[in-house]
Design a protein that fits this description.
The chain has one domain: TIM Barrel (Alpha-Beta Barrel), CATH 3.20.20. It is of the alpha/beta class. It is globular and about 45 Å long. The longest helix has 15 residues. Strands 1, 2, 3, 4, 5, 6, 7 and 8 form an eight-stranded mixed beta sheet that branches. Strand 6, helix 5 and strand 7 form a beta-alpha-beta unit. 32% of the residues lie in helices and 16% in strands. The two termini are 20 Å apart. The protein binds zinc ion (ZN) (2 copies). The site of one zinc ion has 5 residues, from loops.
Length: 240
């Protein structure tokens, strides 16, 4: 089980099934230390979130039941300039932001070069901390290697997303993709972050499938930033 999991969807994302408190209680049961709530940004087709939802997340305490609860968002990249659907006002209230070029209301596939440029611009903006499931951009083709390289160069974490290892949607290529992400990160002496992308409490921090494939994808414990909370907090520029 992960001790830290920063990719969690609540009922506010509408296609996820638990509340923040239910995740906290589950985290306590699993003896976790840190969870991060990261509902989809408002440009997602199905989410119930809007700008005010993210701006008000700071009303939730820092610690609940002894668990450090970080407030984040899984942002959508909305244009080639690399802007996301998390406003500056909201971003300032959040502890961290994940981003990806998901299918969303604003961004339409603009071909490999522009799609890649959009993600590179987001990485360079300094406004996101993690590229979620960087092997999977459902909007269209991108130059993934270029994105992995840029993320390492600009101190943006690449995510090893556990939900893509679950049997319900597993593809063998994902293992090759994860191996490449890990190889690029290692070359840059960078760590990766492992997150569940939980859509229910039963997926929280569950790394049983990662354990199965870890050796195959070349992931070693010293490369997982979840094992180094101080380093993670420093990178996110937030207090423990
Ligand atoms: Zn996502
Ligand atoms: Zn997600």
């Amino acid at each position: 089980m992960l001790k830290i999991d920063l990719h969690i969807h609540t009922i506010a994302s509408r296609h996820a099934f638990n509340t923040i408190l239910e995740y906290v209680n589950q985290a306590k049961k699993l003896k976790m230390k840190v969870i991060g709530i990261s509902d989809h940004g408002p440009d997602n087709h199905t989410t119930l979130t809007d700008d005010i939802y993210f701006r008000c997340l700071d009303r939730i305490p820092k610690y609940i039941e002894g668990i450090r609860v970080l407030k984040g968002a899984e942002a959508n990249i909305i244009n080639v300039e690399g802007d996301t659907d998390i406003s500056e006002r909201a971003r300032k209230k959040l502890d961290y932001v994940l981003a990806n070029l998901h299918t969303c209301l604003s961004y339409k596939d603009q071909g490999r070069v522009k799609n890649t440029q959009a993600v590179l611009n987001t990485i360079k903006s300094g406004k996101v901390n993690i590229i979620s499931h960087p092997q999977s951009f459902d909007i269209g083709d991108v130059d993934r290697t270029k994105i992995y390289e840029a993320a390492c160069e600009y101190g943006v974490l690449l995510e090893i997303n556990l939900s893509h290892l679950l049997p319900r949607g597993f593809k063998k290529e994902t293992l090759d993709d994860y191996r490449e992400i890990i190889d690029v990160a290692r070359k840059h002496k960078h760590k990766v972050i492992v997150n569940s992308d939980a859509h229910s409490i039963w997926e929280l921090a569950d790394d049983q499938y990662l354990k199965k494939y870890k050796k195959e994808i070349g992931l070693t414990d010293n490369m997982i930033i979840n094992n180094y909370p101080k380093e993670l907090f420093k990178l996110l520029k937030i207090d423990e």
